[in-house]
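Obj.: predict assembly geometry.
Materials: sequence records (below).
Method: joint structure prediction, all chains together.
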Amino acid sequence: EVQLVQSGAEVKKPGESLKISCKGSGYIFSNYWIGWVRQMPGKGPEWMGIIYPGDSDTRYSPSFQGQVTISADKSTSIAYLQWTSLKASDTAIYYCARRGGSYQIDLWGQGTLVTVSA
Amino acid sequence: QSALTQPASVSGSPGQSITISCTGTSSDIGGYNFVSWYQQHPGKAPKLMIYEVSYRPSGVSNRLSGSKSGNTASLTISGLQAEDEADYYCSSYTSSSTVVIFGGGTKLTVL
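Observations (raw structure tokens):
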């Protein structure tokens, strides 16, 4: 089965670091762009950035540049999203997503809820 | 880069048709045929329903159709069913560095 499986929900304090993961299976992980999408409560999705696991080419949306780090390990078929210092405003659901050739997201992870609260 | 503009809500009775609009600019919807639509039920991940303006992925009902005119894309759902009640989001490629932008979402209520 073609799927993306994300790590579980996290509860963190402001200033803490965090790394969440997304494991692809059922397809050649290296051959597809993998992105991260933020969805804040009651809001639409926001594209954060994207990585091509085959060569680790990474692009960030301007709003997220310098705020997060996206990485991938093609040997384990896992993509990562990392923060060094969380803020309360980072509270959201984060989805990993496989991007198709027409800029559509044809495969979504189940989402990881990140809650940042003192 | 601002989000694409969608109506906050639409509603219809079972069997009726509804259309959801998604308005952008010439830098996104108007300039490229890379418009997608997603359905999201509460507590679930979004699901791709339409890509490249009007193409349906395998398994998606043919009651859904997409179109585009100028800077506005549209999603039409015919023969409304209770299971269609969900949030719908449009997205488009954009020539800005964001690459992909989304709409704010439309809540479809089946009366």
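Conclusions so far: Chain B has no helices and nine strands.
To do: check interface contacts against the pulldown list.
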